[in-house]
Amino acid sequence: MLETLRSIIQEVNGAKDLNASLAIITRRVQRALNTKVCSVYLLDKNLERYVLMASIGLDELAVGKVSLGAEEGLVGLVARRAEPVNLDNASSHPNYVYLPETREEQFESFLGVPIIHHQHVLGVLVVQQHEKRIFDSEEEAFLITLSAQLAGVIANAEARGAITGFSPSGIKTVDICFDGVPGAPGVAIAEAVTVFPPADLNAIPNRPCKDIKAEIVFFNDCLNAVRIDISELKMKIKGQLRPEERELFDAYLHMLSDQALGQEVVAKIKEGQWAQGALARVALEHVNGMEMIDDDYLRERATDIKDLCSRVLFYLQDKQQETQVYPARCILICEELSAAMLAEVPKENLVGIISAKGSGHSHVAILARGMGIPAVMGAIDIPFSEFDGKEIIIDGYNGKVYGNPSDELRTRFQEIVNEQVQLTEELEAIKDLPAETLDHYTVGLWVNTGMITDAFTAKERGAEGIGLFRTEVPFLLKDRFPTEREQTDIYRPQLEAFYPRPVTMRTLDIGGDKALPYFTIKEDNPFLGWRGIRVSMDHPEIFISQVRAMMKASQGLDNLHIMLPMVSNMRQVDYAMHLIDRGYAELLEEGLTIKKPDIGVMVEVPAITYQMNALAKRVNFISVGTNDLIQYLLAVDRNNPRVANLFSIFHPPVLHALNDLAKNAERVNLRYSVCGEMAGDPGAAILLMAMGFKVLSMNITALPRVKSVIRNITFAQAELLLARALQAEDSEEVKSMIDMELYNAGVERLLRSSRG
Fold this sequence. Notes:
Number of domains: 4
Oligomer: single chain
Helix content: 40-55%
Shape: globular
Largest sheet: 8 strands, mixed
Mean pLDDT: 84
Radius of gyration: 30 Å
Number of strands: 22
Structural class: alpha/beta
Number of helices: 26
CATH architecture of the largest domain: Alpha-Beta Barrel
Strand order of the largest sheet: 7-14-13-9-10-11-12-8
CATH class of the largest domain: Alpha Beta
CATH superfamily of the largest domain: Phosphoenolpyruvate-binding domains
Low-confidence stretches: none
CATH topology of the largest domain: TIM Barrel
């Protein structure tokens, strides 16, 4: 059975569309189980009915026309229970429904298994037999295993079909909804632009070509270029290989011939597909098929095909390096967005981002919040390559993406967009007012930045300082490590923009979900690996160059604070302080007049929360990075959409940990603040204020909302709310308390703007 399973899945993966996949499934299963009938029913969400989409053994005229209600028949029973139903006398079962169009009255035996994807029943796979027969446990297990394997394939095929605007029954569809997780609040309606990393066959979108003849010529030129490369490589290593080993290169050249892969790609171009998309489709069809075969030789050939096609793709992309023209309003969509991809889009054009990977607490989501654009992360079922060039709606409040929007849906979301604009205008009126409660308790509201433009925007929004300047952002935009002089030129405008207010610069924080394109770090468990100060301590030359540049940039301003990320022990602090002292002494020797900056530690690792006494002897301040601290406290990878719902800033143990940390820092007379994303949630800001955090640093867009909430409550109210929250047992209870408090304060409109 295992071989049969592999063979079926292999065929299905190579199918061109959903109908072809279903035809393969029904034909192969009917043969494997030696039954008279095999059918697939798929749920049409528009009709809320299970439509007969493919069958071997039932009347062919019934396919696509016959359907059962969600609660109707044995098919409905399988779907409702989400478990197999195995009967030897189906017609006598109380749930049996006779469908004359199918001519199934003669079939007594029935085995139906649900097709489930991410806890949702997509459909039902059914086999039937004339004579009375209970399908045995092995046959049942075979169908269950097959349906589980095929669920993702069917879900993806359905999603692709939905984008074209048709449901399984052929009915025109609108308002197709794909679920993700909220990444950054807001709503946008715009054209989707699919972006993809270079030479990645899996990420190439489908796009029409403008000139088929020219596209074929272009493809053949690139194909020939790779042939030349392979031929040259063959000659280069001629003396190092035996004749039989050199034959492999002849095999490569044959694969690249006009009669092999080249012919198949040209055929798809003639159908109207651009060269990159045609190549990707052909390559993946071959690779997916070969990788499923239990033959070592053929699996190796799959690797060869992938490599050769990637080489051709590289030429296609290299010669097609035209400047990307972005629509006036566009939503970026990708399998896995990076900061570099965001940076390539003109700020005025970008109105939203969607990523199939990542969560609401990933680095890209944080950047999106800082830019003030809505984001949906972890949309794992979204056929991102099919969205290119189509109008979509992104709902960053609720983590949803809508394809084929109806006029009604477009109007509804446009009203939300208008409401956002109105709220922004209202918040603009308080930008110059202090963050002061009704009973005159004042909190310092600082901002987290990564670019010089952020600094100017932050000042306009009323920020009182920079609590976190992410120095890795300028590093990300380079193709190498920036020089000390280049770094000085980057840091100086930040310090000047906020002078005399404090600017806290975090030393290079890479690793985890932040990788430099020229300094990649690949680890099985990157969040517990080589990141933050651990990288800096292993590369003191990078660290000392950076802190020298920071201190050089502060000359005559003296508003620089330096912060160390991912500290877990005092040896790291001591070594960093040694290097900073050395760099400072060098600058004095060079004749510069510089005040030594305050040095602080970013509290992200739970272990450091128990070392306040030791920290107080060494540094001037601490700042809590709630994103990572919560991640480690709750054992949740914040980039994993499957566990994103377990990450909560309102989890009672998180609140207790932060409250204890504030008390311990106060006890040892150590300045303390929060610079994580938690500070930007208006409800959470109230709790942090009540704990004693007098400085909250957040993304720029959150600052007016947080200020508005603080100005509409008393500090006494915040303290009472904190006391109640610390008695709660789960995060939902805490959120309900906060929502009620904001409602009573008359700022309930800000709820959607903060959490959705």
